[in-house]
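Bit of a strange request maybe. I'm writing a small parser for structure token strings and I need a real example to test against, not something I typed by hand. Could someone generate the tokens for this chain?
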Amino acid sequence: MNRPFEIDPEEYPFTDRWLPYRDGNIHYVDEGQGPAILLLHGNPTWSYLYRNVIKELRKDYRLIAPDYPGFGMSKAPADYRFTPQEHSKAVQDLIRHLDLKDFILVVQDWGGPVGLNYAVQHRENLCGIVVMNTWAWPAEIMPMKLFSLAMGGKPFGYWLQTRRNFFAKTIVPNGIHHAEKVTDRLRKAYTDPFPTPESRIPTWVFPRSIRKERTWLAGIESKLPNLSDLPAHILWGTKDSAGFPLEQMAKWQKVLPMNETEMLEDASHYVQEDRPDRVASAIRRVSSRTLGGVLR
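Reply from user aminoacidic:
Good idea to test on real output. This should exercise your parser:
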């Protein structure tokens, strides 16, 4: 299957894999051998977000990074509505297809709710988790609610996302602390998956879902105690926006009492772009605690 857009092969030197998904498909990366690591992205990113983590770890681990339908190189089925529930179902179908067992889950941004929805129902299939600047409960703080209203509302938020490609063009570069890393090819990698107003609708649904999917998020939160014995590493970019203050990190510390926490003073929301080396180290650390993995 052909890629829907060009990507720098030096930046993203991976084999494309495709899972037919109704009348669409799920694109994913499956690199390396060893203990399985499932890497889940948020909005408006895709498996490209984890490229440097994958390159660093693939000699010792098996790294699986999917693109949700409508993101990256995946093609959404005709009846897909781009809700986090559907994305979580797509991830669960990929896990089942690949027969992943005893894996480490790595989540950031919307990858948190998407992945935790699986985790709280299948604790027995996880051996560890890495959490970065995310949540898995109804929005409690006003900045997050206002963000949802502005970015996921109508007509202004809808216009921003579908007509201006605001998430990919503006929020991503502003969510990376190290300005020198925001290169033209990085900008292109995040804007090219959304060439038309219609293709950008998924980036509007996600912020809208912060308000609209409170019941679903509350359901995940109610089952978070299932993960109380799960070895965890919390990796938090402290330069993030008001939507992810340290109070959110502290909540994760209570939810995941078996945690080790690392605050990154030189990282913002997209921790994988700012400090991929620390993400890789966090994965190694969890692996060493659970699987006797390689710690370097």
